[in-house]
Amino acid sequence: MCTLEKRGNLFILTFTGEDQHRFNPNVIGSLLSLLSQVKAEATRGSALITQAQGKFFSNGFDLDWAQAAGSEQGAAERLHHMVDLFKPVIAALLSLPMPTVAAITGHAAAVGFVLALSHDYLIMRKDRGVLYMSEVDIALTIPDYFNALFREKIGDASVRRDFLLRGLKMKGDEAEKRGVVEAAYGGEAEVKQASVHLAENLGKRKWHGEVYAEIRKGLYPQLSAILGLTHKAYTIARL
């Protein structure tokens, strides 16, 4: 599951335990609830860090839960249900009135990678963990909002192709070199320390949260449209 801790102006959301942090309806519901809490308690200077315990940041949807339906059709319906349930998670991250940082200390695969990529900044571990979209390897198509996220977050078309059509497993040093993550560090402690440092520095700017969220949504118009997010105009001048 996941927990939320508040340290000063920082919200730290952590996937707990030593498992693969796969998403099923219960976990998705818990995550949405915590993101709603973050939004409700946000103040100027707030920032969010998302991290995980153990080897995995997240290994994607809970396919065991889907297959427990007992039939191919039932499994497909459960998988589609999870895809639909996860859409508001991405919408919530795009709408948060604060900077967001993903501290990727382990493997981030499929929707786990999607979750990380939905943050403003990604900090990754060099010595362990990869970014990986497994859909082409396990014969699953990619939801429309996943595709929009990759189009608007990763500018290099060859990188998008390699992730989505080759199932490339990209390590931290290459991800930093190719502009997928902000920076990569040698170990878990360094990733978490760098994430806190970045989030604190961003929070010190004390940006107007709603304005920050609207600028973010405007930066990713295709994704925002697919997620059903409306765009508001704000004029708040500092004279």
UniProtKB/TrEMBL annotation:
<comment type="similarity">
    <text>Belongs to the enoyl-CoA hydratase/isomerase family.</text>
</comment>
<dbReference type="GO" id="GO:0006635">
    <property type="term" value="P:fatty acid beta-oxidation"/>
</dbReference>
<keyword id="KW-1133">Transmembrane helix</keyword>
<feature type="transmembrane region" description="Helical">
    <location>
        <begin position="89"/>
        <end position="118"/>
    </location>
</feature>
<keyword id="KW-0276">Fatty acid metabolism</keyword>
<keyword id="KW-0443">Lipid metabolism</keyword>
<keyword id="KW-0472">Membrane</keyword>
<protein>
    <recommendedName>
        <fullName>Delta(3)-Delta(2)-enoyl-CoA isomerase</fullName>
        <ecNumber>5.3.3.8</ecNumber>
    </recommendedName>
</protein>
<dbReference type="InterPro" id="IPR029045">
    <property type="entry name" value="ClpP/crotonase-like_dom_sf"/>
</dbReference>
<dbReference type="GO" id="GO:0005777">
    <property type="term" value="C:peroxisome"/>
</dbReference>
<dbReference type="GO" id="GO:0004165">
    <property type="term" value="F:delta(3)-delta(2)-enoyl-CoA isomerase activity"/>
</dbReference>
<dbReference type="Pfam" id="PF00378">
    <property type="entry name" value="ECH_1"/>
</dbReference>
<keyword id="KW-0812">Transmembrane</keyword>
<comment type="pathway">
    <text>Lipid metabolism; fatty acid beta-oxidation.</text>
</comment>
<dbReference type="InterPro" id="IPR001753">
    <property type="entry name" value="Enoyl-CoA_hydra/iso"/>
</dbReference>
